[in-house]
Fold:
Amino acid sequence: MSKHLPLKWLTATVLMLTAAGCGYADSSSATTLEGAEAKLNEGIFTASEFYGGTSSAEMLKELRMDCAEQDIRLTHEINTEDLDGNLSTSYYINGDSHHYVIVYRYNRESTRIAKIRGLYGTDKDSRSPLIRTAGRTALVYVSSGSEKGKYSDKLENIFDQVLK
Structure:
């Protein structure tokens, strides 16, 4: 008997279990994707629900279109929801992680005021970072690096228009 047999057996067992685990994850992921696709096809889950309702989805569409007209591409979209159901959507500007826009949609205006104040030191409209608010919504442009504030002028006008 080889002195390394237990080591070989342990290695083979670990590889076999890892492979089995990977196979399980793949089938689970496929099942989850199929389920989500089925719900979408059945009309149970719509894109507007994902973005917080029809008005939020329309606002995000308007923001993207207005930005595109100013040669500002909103990329790398990320959608999040906190434990209280408040939503945010963030974008890099022209693929640059030093410049980004965040759209916050809160359940209540009082929550928006408290959260934005906690995050940025003010709940009022400001220039640095660029913050525009209306009701339960806040639009924020944050930037860093050598070109900090590069899009402030264009985005200030766009934010004001979108929140009208």
